[in-house]
């Protein structure tokens, strides 16, 4: 089995360092990625992808990223689910970054 993803896109929102109860640092990075095909109006759409960065990768991103910076992220997809207030299941996916390449920096 294989769970691997590579994305290249622009930073939409600056990451902020958070800490777990165990003191492990993490940051969430929102990256905008262009689709490689045009929609029915002849325009390229984009996807905004939530990426979670852990430990040293999170700290590096804080130092290196600015809004609009170009980044390459290698990681894996993690699927999550929870029940809403109406007791309906809600599913979402995020990218857990294993490597971040800063293609442009501050």
Briefly say what this structure is.
With 106 residues, the protein is mainly beta. It has one helix at residues 55-64; strands at residues 5-13, 17-19, 25-38, 44-54, 70-83, 89-102.
The topology string of helices and strands comes to EEEEHEE
Report the biggest beta sheet as strand number plus sense, adding barrel if it closes: 5 strands, mixed, barrel
Question: How are the strands of the largest sheet arranged?
Answer: 1-3-4-6-5
CATH-wise, what's the superfamily? Nucleic acid-binding proteins
Secondary-structure class = mainly beta
Tell how many strands the DSSP assignment holds.
6
What form results from the Cα inertia axes?
globular
Terminal-residue CA separation: 38 Å
CATH architecture: Beta Barrel
| CATH topological fold name | OB fold (Dihydrolipoamide Acetyltransferase, E2P)
CATH C-level: Mainly Beta
How many independent structural domains?
Answer: 1
């Amino acid at each position: 089995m294989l769970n691997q993803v590579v994305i290249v896109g622009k930073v939409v929102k600056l990451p902020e360092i958070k800490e777990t109860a165990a003191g492990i640092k993490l940051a969430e990075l929102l990256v905008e990625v262009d689709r490689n095909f045009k929609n029915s109006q002849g325009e390229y759409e984009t996807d905004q992808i939530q990426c979670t960065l852990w430990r040293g990768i999170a700290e590096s991103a804080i130092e290196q990223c600015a809004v609009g910076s170009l980044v390459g992220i290698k990681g894996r997809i993690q699927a999550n689910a929870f029940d809403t207030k109406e007791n309906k299941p809600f599913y979402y996916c995020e990218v857990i970054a294993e490597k971040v390449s800063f293609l442009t920096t501050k």
